[in-house]
Amino acid sequence: MATTTKKLPWVEKYRPRLLKDVVGNEEAVSRLSVIAKSGVLPHMILSGPPGVGKTTSVHCLANELLGKELSKKAVLELNASDDRGIEVVRTSIKTFAQKKVTLPPNRQKIIILDEADSMTAAAQQALRRTMENFSGTTRFMLACNQPDKIIEPIQSRCAIVRFTKLTDSQVKARLVTVAAKESVPLTQDGIDALTFIADGDMRQAMCGMEATFAGKGDVTADNVYQVCDTPSPEQVKQMVAMASKGDFDGASGILMKLHGEGFAVTDLLSTVYRAVCYGELPEGMRMNFMRVVAETHLRVSQGSDTILQLSGMVGAMCMAAHSG
Amino acid sequence: MATGTEKKIQIPWVEKYRPATLSDVVSHKSITSTLTQLIANQQMPHLMFYGPPGTGKTSTVVAMARDLYGSKNGAPSNYSTMVLELNASDDRGIDTVREQIRTFVSSRAIVHDPPYKLVILDEADSMTSTAQFALRRVMEKYTSNARFCLICNYAGKIIPAIQSRCTKFRFKPLPSTVVRDRTLHVIEQENLNVSEDAVAALVRVAEGDMRKSLNTLQATAMATRDITSTAVYETSGLPSPEVVAELVGCLMTGGVDAVQQITSTMTMQGLALSDVIQGIHEVVLNLAIDGTVKAVLCKDLATIEDNVLHACDEQLQVGGLVAAFIQARAML
Predict the structure, then answer these.
(1) How far is A40 from chain B (nearest CA, A)?
(2) Domain B176-236 fold
(3) Given this model, what pLDDT does residue B2 score?
(4) Which GO terms describe its biological process (chain B) (predicted)?
(5) CATH class of the domain at A233-322
(6) Pairing verdict, β A138-144 and A159-162
(7) Coil, helix or strand for B316?
(8) Which residue, A75, A112, B171, B294, could crosslink B55 as a Cys pair with Cβ 3.0–4.6 Å?
C-alpha cells in the first residue's frame, strides 16, 4: 500500500469478464448465457450467499449484451456505498431511465442495483412504478443476499435466479489457476485450509490466499490459519471426535484452551458447527450434534455468550453420544 | 473522594498508568515490534486491532500516535492536528464518514515528519454497516494522506471489504503473569498495602483484562487501607473461591434444604446468581468425578444460566440448581 504503483487485489484482477469463465452455478450461468445469446432480457433478481459470482455474472451479462463501449453509457451501477434512498430512485435512476441512448435493436439499458437488500423499503416502493414505466428501454438487475428483503411487488416483476455456494473442488481449481499465474508457492494442506475457511465463498478464499502470500510468503495450513485467524479446525475436529466418544473432560479441555486464546464464543461456535457438518460422525449423532450446536447458538445470540454455554454444549453432546 | 491524608484529585489509575510510548506497552511484544518496524520502514498500512476488552488495543494505538506525532527534538507536538479520534460516543453514521472524516483526510499536511495523518476509529464494531461501506472508498482514495486504525472487539462485525484493506492484529487476553507484574508496579507506585493472596485475587478477577484489574484495585483501595483477597472479592462483587467451594460442598451433600442455605449466603454477600454459576462451573470442571456426570451437570448449569439471563426468578433457579445436583449425584 505504501508503493505508489496501484496494484489491484487479486479478487478484481481475476474477476471473470465472460460468462463462460464464471465458476460454478452451472444452471444459473447457463440461463444467463441463453439470455446473452438471444437478447431477451427480463428484469432479474440474483440471490445467493456472498462471493459466489452474482455481481460478476451481472457484469459479464451486461458486457456480452452491450459490448465494452456501449456498456459505459448504457449501464448504471449503484451499490451500497452510494446513497440509495428514495431521493435517488426519484432522481438519478429516473433520469437514467429516461435518457436516450442509441442501442442496437432488441437491446436495453441496464441498471444494476448491487446489494439491493440494503435498500430501504420506501426506496423499493418507489422503484416498482419506475420499473414498469420504463420497461421498454431499461432493464433492472438486482443482486442480493436475502431475497426476502426485497418487497413482494418487485419480486413479482422479476425473474429470480438463485446462486448457491460453490463446491470445494470448484474453489480449489480456481485457487490453483490463480496461484500458478501469481507464482504462489501453494501446498496441498494450504489449499485445504483456504477452502475450509472460505466455505464456498470464492472472494474470501482469494483474499485469504493473497493475505497469506503477502504476509508469510508460503501458503501452508498453519500460515493460513494464522493470517485468517480462525480457531484451528484440527483441534475443533478433535474436540468433536472426543465428544462423540463421550469424553467430556478431553473435549471441554480443548474448548477451554481455545477460549483462553481469546477467540470469541460465536467464532468458536461456527467452527464447531462446520466440524460437525463435515466431520466423520454416524448420521444420527451428527443430527443430534447439529441440534445441540443450533440451540447453543440461539442462546449465545440472545446474550448468554459465556464459556459456560460452550461447556453445556459439550455436555449435551456427550449425553447424546452416550444415549447413542 | 480520597480518604485520609491525600487531598489531590484522583484520576483513574487506568488513565494514570496508560503506557505513554510503544515500548511501555506491557504485552503483545510481537505486535508492538511489528508496529515499530513498520514505522521505521515508513510502510504503515491501514490497521485493524481486535480482541477482548482491556487487552491494550487503544493503549497501543494511542502510544503509537504519540511516538509518531509527539514532540521530537524540541519541535512542538502535532498530535492534535494530525490525529482524529472517533469512538462510539461520537456520531459515526454515514454523514460523519462523508463529512467529518473526509474533510480531515482530504487536506494534506506537507511539513511534518510522517507524511500521513491518523484516523482512529475506536469501537468500530458499533458503526453501522452503511457507514462502513461508505468508509471503504474513503480509505482507498486518501491512502496517500492518511492511515486508518480500526479498533473493535468482534472482527466479525467489520465488513469483509474493510477487513481485506487492513493489516489485522489480534490482541489475546493478557497472560496472568503480565497482569500480575503490571498490577504490582502500580501497587508499588501508589504505596499500597496489599497482601499476596489479594494480588492473586486481582489477577483472577481480571481474567486477562488489565483494565479490570486496575479498576478493582483502585476501588478496593478507596474502601480500605489493607487490601486483602476478601476485600477484593467484595468490591468486585464476584464470589471468592472459598464461598464457591462452600456452595458446591453444600450442593454435593445437602438435600432440598440447600436452597435456603444458598439463597441466604448469596443475599448476605450480595452475589448475583449468574456469577455464582460461573464460579460453580469452574469448580465442577475440576471435580474428580465421572465425565458423564460432569456432562450432565454442565448442560444443566448452562440452561440455568440462560434462564437467569432471561430474567427468571432467582429463587426458583436456585431450586433448579439444587435439583440438577441431586439428580447428578444419583448417577454417581
Answers:
(1) 34
(2) Helicase, Ruva Protein; domain 3 (1.10.8)
(3) 43
(4) DNA repair; DNA-templated DNA replication
(5) mainly alpha
(6) unpaired
(7) helix
(8) B171
DSSP string, B261-272: HHHHHHHHHT--
Of A79, A304, A318, the CB nearest to B295: A318
pLDDT of residue A296: 93
Q: What class does CATH assign to B13-170?
A: alpha beta
The CA distance from B299 to the nearest CA of chain A, in Å, is 4
- CA A316 distance to own-chain centroid: 31
CATH number of A10-162, picked from 3.30.1130.10, 3.40.50.200, 3.10.129.10, 3.40.50.300: 3.40.50.300
Q: Where are the domains of chain A?
A: 10-162, 168-227, 233-322
The model's pTM: 0.69
**Average predicted confidence (pLDDT) for chain B:** 83
Q: So what CATH class is B241-331?
A: mainly alpha
Contacts of A317 in chain B (CB under 8 A): 295
The more confident residue out of B28 and B91 is B28
CA separation for the pair A280, A259 (Å, rounded): 24
**Nearest CA of chain B to the CA of A318: how many Å?**
6
Q: What is the model's pLDDT at position A281?
A: 85
N-to-C CA span, chain B: 54
Least CB–CB distance from A319: residue in B45, B278, B299: B299
Show the CA angle centred on residue A131, arms to residues A125 and A132, nearest 5°: 110
B145, HSE (Cβ side, Cα atoms, 13 Å):
18
Chain-chain contact of B296 with A252 (C-beta, under 8 angstroms): no
CB contact under 8 A, A252 and B285: yes
Q: Are residues A139 and A43 in contact, defined by beta-carbon separation less than 8 angstroms?
A: yes
**How many angstroms separate the CA atoms of A259 and A251, rounded?**
13
pLDDT score of B40 more than 50:
yes
The pLDDT tens digits of the residues spanning A167-196 come to 889 999 999 998 888 888 888 888 888 888
